[in-house]
Amino acid sequence: MLSTLLATTAATGTGGNWSIFILMPLLFVVMYFTMIRPQKKQQKKEQEIRESTQVGDEITTIGGIIGRVVTVKEDSLVIETGADRNKMKITRWAIQTNNTANEKIQAEREAAKAAKEAEINAKKNKKEDE
User: Fold this and answer.
1) What's the start-to-end Cα distance of the chain, in Å?
2) Where are the domains of the chain?
């Protein structure tokens, strides 16, 4: 859209050089809201996941290893993996997801949904009784 507008004004000669000074900042604003801002939001979310990891949480690493957190230190943690309970020391930045936290969030969503449905059913029953 912007490129066609720029090409049109450049080809017809109308608008002069001012169209470039108007369209370039507009292009940067669009790029910011479509590329940079979502990436920063994702990085912030990942950092919160890494900082909120506690002992007993089940995590998945960037390499795909699933394990339960045994020890948490400032910049690393120890996880247990497999039936043999092998222990591995990993750095915090290697955490991709916190499966325990995801399960808690999913359970909260389902409970909220069930409570909302129960409230709706209670209102329906009350109307039918009247």
Assistant:
1) 58
2) 2-48, 53-129
